[in-house]
Amino acid sequence: MKKTILLTTLAALLVSQAGAQSCMANVKKSGLTVGTSPDYPPYESLNDRNEIVGFDIDLMNAIGKKMGMKVKVVGQGFDGLIPALISKKIDVIAAGMTVTAERKKAVNFTLPYDNSANVIMARKENLKYGTAASLAGRNVGSQIGTVQEQIVQGIKGASSKAFNLYTDAAVALQTRQIDAMVVDKTVADQFLKTYPDLRITGTLARNAKAMAVRKDCGDVVNRMNAAIIEMRKSGELAALTKKWLK
Ligand code: ARG
Protein backbone atom coordinates (compact mmCIF):
# COMPACT_ATOMS: atom_id res chain seq x y z
CA MET A 1 0.00 0.00 0.00
CA LYS A 2 2.74 2.40 1.07
CA LYS A 3 4.72 1.43 -2.00
CA THR A 4 1.80 2.26 -4.30
CA ILE A 5 1.41 5.70 -2.73
CA LEU A 6 5.12 6.28 -3.09
CA LEU A 7 5.07 5.20 -6.72
CA THR A 8 2.03 7.31 -7.50
CA THR A 9 3.67 10.32 -5.89
CA LEU A 10 6.83 9.63 -7.81
CA ALA A 11 4.94 9.29 -11.07
CA ALA A 12 3.04 12.50 -10.40
CA LEU A 13 6.31 14.25 -9.67
CA LEU A 14 7.86 12.97 -12.89
CA VAL A 15 4.84 14.07 -14.91
CA SER A 16 4.91 17.56 -13.38
CA GLN A 17 8.67 17.71 -13.99
CA ALA A 18 8.18 16.67 -17.59
CA GLY A 19 5.52 19.37 -17.99
CA ALA A 20 7.85 21.98 -16.57
CA GLN A 21 10.71 20.83 -18.72
CA SER A 22 8.70 20.86 -21.90
CA CYS A 23 7.61 24.40 -21.04
CA MET A 24 11.23 25.58 -21.05
CA ALA A 25 12.05 23.35 -24.01
CA ASN A 26 9.13 24.79 -25.98
CA VAL A 27 10.16 28.39 -25.51
CA LYS A 28 13.76 27.42 -26.28
CA LYS A 29 12.57 26.11 -29.62
CA SER A 30 10.06 28.78 -30.59
CA GLY A 31 11.40 31.76 -28.63
CA LEU A 32 9.44 33.74 -26.04
CA THR A 33 6.23 35.29 -27.32
CA VAL A 34 5.55 38.31 -25.14
CA GLY A 35 2.08 39.87 -25.02
CA THR A 36 1.52 43.50 -24.16
CA SER A 37 -1.01 46.31 -24.53
CA PRO A 38 0.92 49.20 -26.15
CA ASP A 39 -1.11 52.11 -24.77
CA TYR A 40 0.84 52.59 -21.56
CA PRO A 41 3.89 54.81 -22.06
CA PRO A 42 6.65 54.59 -20.85
CA TYR A 43 6.11 50.85 -20.20
CA GLU A 44 4.89 50.21 -23.75
CA SER A 45 3.59 52.32 -26.59
CA LEU A 46 3.74 52.56 -30.38
CA ASN A 47 6.42 54.78 -31.91
CA ASP A 48 6.08 56.75 -35.18
CA ARG A 49 6.82 53.62 -37.15
CA ASN A 50 4.13 51.65 -35.33
CA GLU A 51 6.70 49.56 -33.47
CA ILE A 52 6.07 48.60 -29.84
CA VAL A 53 8.70 50.26 -27.66
CA GLY A 54 9.19 50.95 -23.95
CA PHE A 55 10.65 49.84 -20.65
CA ASP A 56 8.93 46.43 -20.68
CA ILE A 57 10.20 45.72 -24.21
CA ASP A 58 13.82 46.59 -23.39
CA LEU A 59 13.55 44.57 -20.19
CA MET A 60 12.14 41.50 -21.98
CA ASN A 61 14.78 41.70 -24.71
CA ALA A 62 17.53 41.84 -22.08
CA ILE A 63 16.02 38.89 -20.18
CA GLY A 64 15.63 36.92 -23.42
CA LYS A 65 19.26 37.54 -24.25
CA LYS A 66 20.37 36.23 -20.87
CA MET A 67 18.17 33.17 -21.33
CA GLY A 68 19.57 32.64 -24.83
CA MET A 69 16.16 33.01 -26.48
CA LYS A 70 14.54 35.02 -29.20
CA VAL A 71 11.83 37.43 -28.02
CA LYS A 72 8.80 38.35 -30.11
CA VAL A 73 6.47 41.08 -28.82
CA VAL A 74 2.80 41.09 -29.83
CA GLY A 75 0.27 43.82 -29.05
CA GLN A 76 -3.35 43.26 -27.99
CA GLY A 77 -5.97 44.55 -25.54
CA PHE A 78 -4.99 44.53 -21.86
CA ASP A 79 -8.04 42.65 -20.61
CA GLY A 80 -7.32 39.73 -22.98
CA LEU A 81 -3.71 39.21 -21.85
CA ILE A 82 -4.31 36.68 -19.06
CA PRO A 83 -6.70 34.60 -21.25
CA ALA A 84 -4.10 34.69 -24.07
CA LEU A 85 -1.43 33.47 -21.64
CA ILE A 86 -3.56 30.65 -20.28
CA SER A 87 -4.55 29.50 -23.79
CA LYS A 88 -0.82 29.51 -24.74
CA LYS A 89 -1.10 32.18 -27.43
CA ILE A 90 1.64 34.02 -25.54
CA ASP A 91 4.31 32.85 -23.08
CA VAL A 92 4.85 36.00 -21.03
CA ILE A 93 2.84 39.12 -20.16
CA ALA A 94 4.95 42.28 -19.94
CA ALA A 95 2.41 45.06 -19.65
CA GLY A 96 3.11 47.12 -16.55
CA MET A 97 0.91 44.56 -14.83
CA THR A 98 0.26 45.02 -11.12
CA VAL A 99 0.77 42.00 -8.89
CA THR A 100 -2.55 41.23 -7.18
CA ALA A 101 -3.78 38.31 -5.08
CA GLU A 102 -6.58 37.70 -7.58
CA ARG A 103 -4.22 37.50 -10.58
CA LYS A 104 -1.85 35.26 -8.60
CA LYS A 105 -4.56 32.61 -8.65
CA ALA A 106 -4.35 32.51 -12.46
CA VAL A 107 -0.70 33.27 -13.25
CA ASN A 108 2.84 33.02 -11.92
CA PHE A 109 4.48 36.42 -11.39
CA THR A 110 8.22 37.12 -11.69
CA LEU A 111 10.04 39.28 -9.17
CA PRO A 112 8.68 42.85 -9.23
CA TYR A 113 10.64 45.33 -11.37
CA ASP A 114 8.86 48.53 -10.49
CA ASN A 115 6.73 50.09 -7.77
CA SER A 116 4.80 53.30 -8.26
CA ALA A 117 1.72 55.12 -6.98
CA ASN A 118 -1.61 55.55 -8.68
CA VAL A 119 -2.68 59.14 -9.18
CA ILE A 120 -5.80 61.10 -10.07
CA MET A 121 -5.55 63.20 -13.24
CA ALA A 122 -7.91 66.03 -14.10
CA ARG A 123 -7.94 69.12 -16.31
CA LYS A 124 -6.11 72.15 -14.94
CA GLU A 125 -9.34 73.95 -13.99
CA ASN A 126 -10.30 71.00 -11.77
CA LEU A 127 -7.44 70.80 -9.28
CA LYS A 128 -10.15 70.22 -6.66
CA TYR A 129 -10.30 66.51 -7.63
CA GLY A 130 -7.50 65.66 -5.23
CA THR A 131 -9.00 62.77 -3.26
CA ALA A 132 -11.16 59.74 -3.97
CA ALA A 133 -14.02 61.37 -2.03
CA SER A 134 -13.89 64.47 -4.27
CA LEU A 135 -14.78 62.26 -7.28
CA ALA A 136 -18.32 61.46 -6.05
CA GLY A 137 -20.80 62.35 -8.79
CA ARG A 138 -18.02 62.52 -11.44
CA ASN A 139 -17.23 60.43 -14.52
CA VAL A 140 -13.87 58.80 -13.84
CA GLY A 141 -11.82 57.01 -16.49
CA SER A 142 -9.40 54.07 -16.55
CA GLN A 143 -8.68 51.04 -18.75
CA ILE A 144 -10.83 47.90 -18.89
CA GLY A 145 -9.47 45.03 -16.81
CA THR A 146 -6.97 47.08 -14.82
CA VAL A 147 -6.56 47.56 -11.09
CA GLN A 148 -7.37 51.22 -11.70
CA GLU A 149 -10.79 50.21 -13.03
CA GLN A 150 -11.35 48.37 -9.76
CA ILE A 151 -10.18 51.40 -7.76
CA VAL A 152 -12.62 53.66 -9.62
CA GLN A 153 -15.46 51.15 -9.20
CA GLY A 154 -14.73 51.29 -5.47
CA ILE A 155 -15.05 55.07 -5.20
CA LYS A 156 -18.39 55.87 -3.63
CA GLY A 157 -20.66 57.88 -5.94
CA ALA A 158 -18.22 57.97 -8.87
CA SER A 159 -19.28 56.71 -12.27
CA SER A 160 -16.66 54.38 -13.79
CA LYS A 161 -15.81 54.87 -17.48
CA ALA A 162 -13.29 52.23 -18.51
CA PHE A 163 -11.77 52.39 -22.01
CA ASN A 164 -10.18 49.73 -24.21
CA LEU A 165 -6.97 51.73 -24.33
CA TYR A 166 -5.45 53.97 -21.67
CA THR A 167 -4.60 56.47 -24.38
CA ASP A 168 -8.34 56.73 -25.14
CA ALA A 169 -9.03 57.61 -21.49
CA ALA A 170 -6.46 60.43 -21.73
CA VAL A 171 -8.07 61.80 -24.91
CA ALA A 172 -11.52 61.60 -23.26
CA LEU A 173 -10.22 63.57 -20.28
CA GLN A 174 -8.55 66.21 -22.43
CA THR A 175 -11.74 66.57 -24.54
CA ARG A 176 -14.06 66.84 -21.50
CA GLN A 177 -15.89 63.55 -21.95
CA ILE A 178 -14.80 62.53 -18.46
CA ASP A 179 -13.91 64.61 -15.38
CA ALA A 180 -10.90 62.68 -14.09
CA MET A 181 -8.99 59.44 -14.47
CA VAL A 182 -6.97 57.14 -12.23
CA VAL A 183 -3.64 55.99 -13.66
CA ASP A 184 -0.10 55.01 -12.70
CA LYS A 185 2.02 58.05 -11.79
CA THR A 186 4.73 56.99 -14.26
CA VAL A 187 2.18 56.88 -17.08
CA ALA A 188 0.51 60.12 -15.94
CA ASP A 189 3.88 61.87 -16.28
CA GLN A 190 3.97 60.82 -19.95
CA PHE A 191 0.37 61.88 -20.62
CA LEU A 192 1.21 65.31 -19.16
CA LYS A 193 3.70 65.78 -21.99
CA THR A 194 1.07 65.05 -24.64
CA TYR A 195 -1.95 66.80 -23.10
CA PRO A 196 -1.06 70.26 -21.80
CA ASP A 197 -4.43 70.81 -20.08
CA LEU A 198 -4.02 67.83 -17.76
CA ARG A 199 -2.65 67.85 -14.22
CA ILE A 200 -1.95 65.31 -11.48
CA THR A 201 -4.40 66.30 -8.74
CA GLY A 202 -3.97 63.57 -6.11
CA THR A 203 -2.10 60.43 -5.09
CA LEU A 204 -3.58 57.02 -4.23
CA ALA A 205 -2.02 53.69 -3.16
CA ARG A 206 1.22 52.28 -4.61
CA ASN A 207 1.45 49.07 -6.61
CA ALA A 208 4.20 46.63 -7.63
CA LYS A 209 4.56 45.47 -11.24
CA ALA A 210 5.92 42.22 -12.57
CA MET A 211 5.80 39.98 -15.61
CA ALA A 212 3.45 37.02 -15.66
CA VAL A 213 3.98 33.47 -16.92
CA ARG A 214 1.70 30.43 -17.00
CA LYS A 215 1.23 28.55 -13.73
CA ASP A 216 2.84 25.36 -15.09
CA CYS A 217 5.94 27.20 -16.34
CA GLY A 218 7.76 27.59 -13.02
CA ASP A 219 11.05 26.79 -14.74
CA VAL A 220 10.63 29.77 -17.07
CA VAL A 221 9.84 32.06 -14.11
CA ASN A 222 12.96 30.82 -12.31
CA ARG A 223 15.13 31.60 -15.33
CA MET A 224 13.52 35.02 -15.74
CA ASN A 225 14.04 35.78 -12.04
CA ALA A 226 17.70 34.77 -12.30
CA ALA A 227 18.06 37.22 -15.20
CA ILE A 228 16.30 39.98 -13.21
CA ILE A 229 18.60 39.41 -10.22
CA GLU A 230 21.61 39.53 -12.54
CA MET A 231 20.32 42.81 -14.01
CA ARG A 232 19.78 44.25 -10.52
CA LYS A 233 23.37 43.41 -9.56
CA SER A 234 24.98 44.63 -12.76
CA GLY A 235 23.12 47.95 -12.74
CA GLU A 236 21.36 47.13 -16.04
CA LEU A 237 17.95 47.38 -14.39
CA ALA A 238 18.82 50.75 -12.85
CA ALA A 239 19.98 51.97 -16.26
CA LEU A 240 16.70 50.89 -17.89
CA THR A 241 14.71 52.52 -15.09
CA LYS A 242 16.65 55.72 -15.60
CA LYS A 243 16.14 55.61 -19.37
CA TRP A 244 12.36 55.08 -19.29
CA LEU A 245 10.83 55.63 -15.86
CA LYS A 246 12.57 58.67 -14.38
N1 ARG B 1 -0.92 48.43 -13.64
C1 ARG B 1 -2.29 48.31 -14.07
C2 ARG B 1 -2.78 46.88 -13.93
O1 ARG B 1 -2.02 45.97 -13.86
C3 ARG B 1 -2.53 48.81 -15.47
C4 ARG B 1 -1.67 48.17 -16.52
C5 ARG B 1 -2.09 48.60 -17.91
N2 ARG B 1 -1.11 48.18 -18.85
C6 ARG B 1 -1.14 48.44 -20.18
N3 ARG B 1 -0.15 48.02 -20.88
N4 ARG B 1 -2.15 49.07 -20.70
O2 ARG B 1 -3.96 46.64 -13.90
Concise synopsis of the structure shown:
The chain is α/β, with parallel strands linked by helices and 246 residues long. The chain has helices at 2-30, 55-67, 81-86, 101-104, 147-153, 166-174, 185-194, 218-234, 236-244, and strands at residues 32-36, 39-40, 44-46, 52-53, 71-75, 92-93, 107-109, 114-123, 139-143, 159-163, 180-184, 198-209, 212-214. α2 (55-67) packs across α8.
First-last Cα distance: 62 Å
**Count of helical regions:** 9
Give the total of domains: 2
Strand order of the largest sheet: 5-1-6-13-7
**Rg for CA atoms:** 20 Å
Examine the secondary-structure arrangement and name the CATH architecture of the largest domain: 3-Layer(aba) Sandwich
CATH topology of the largest domain: D-Maltodextrin-Binding Protein, domain 2
Low-confidence stretches: none
Task: Provide the structure class.
Answer: alpha/beta
Helix content: 40-55%
Report the strand count: 13
Order of helices and strands, N to C? HEEEEHEHEHEEEHEHEHEEHH
Describe the largest sheet: 5 strands, mixed
Q: Average the pLDDT over all residues and give the rounded result.
A: 93
The proportion of strand residues reads 25-35%
Small molecules (ligands, ions, cofactors) in the structure: arginine
- What's the CATH class of the largest domain, please? Alpha Beta
Features:
single chain, 246 residues, alpha/beta, D-Maltodextrin-Binding Protein, domain 2, five-stranded mixed β-sheet
